[in-house]
Write a structure and sequence with these properties.
By secondary structure, the protein is of the alpha+beta class. The chain has helices at residues 14-22, 52-62, 139-145; strands at 2-6, 29-34, 41-48, 66-67, 70-71, 73-76. The chain has a domain at 2-76: RRM (RNA recognition motif) domain (Alpha-Beta Plaits). A hairpin with a 6-residue loop joins strand 2 and strand 3. The N and C termini lie far apart (80 Å).
């Protein structure tokens, strides 16, 4: 049975947690959660005890007890709820089968800068490519030539 252990002091070691839980039964494994960016212990651990009766005895004895100067919380771990995938704003609602596919853009949309992959160098949105070439027509003759 997997046990959730919370509110642990940041200075506690693996050995101290194992000793506290070994008094109530065999400890199969221990996982201490570390902060992804700082690498510091987050104060949360998961202890796996193979015998369920020993695990329940550990919960009863260690929940709200003091370990390393702090009152710890011990409980049976629950499965983590599923998270929504994707980037922001999507609630995964169903769409009609004949709906326009997402990401198709809106009429008249043009990227702010063109990339350099086969389209020349970067240009601000307002500068046309035709202005630099021989195909440029000024505003007066544009309507007459077509």
């Amino acid at each position: 049975m997997e046990l959730f252990v919370g509110n642990l002091p940041f200075s506690i070691t693996e050995q101290e947690i194992i000793v506290a839980f070994s008094a109530h039964g065999k400890v199969e494994s221990l996982k201490m959660l570390m902060d992804r960016f700082s690498g510091r212990f987050r104060g949360i651990a998961f202890v796996v005890m193979p015998d369920e009766s020993e695990a329940r005895a550990a919960i009863a004895a260690l929940n709200d007890s003091e370990l390393g100067g702090r009152s710890i919380r011990v409980d049976q771990s629950r499965e983590r709820p599923a998270r929504l995938s994707g980037a922001g704003g999507s609630f995964e609602r169903s769409r009609p089968a004949d709906a326009r596919p997402r990401g198709s853009g809106r009429a008249g949309f043009r990227p702010r800068f063109e990339n350099s992959a086969g389209r020349g160098d970067f240009r601000p949105h307002g500068i046309s490519r035709q202005r630099e070439g021989a195909d440029f027509r000024d505003a007066q003759s544009f309507g007459e030539s077509q």
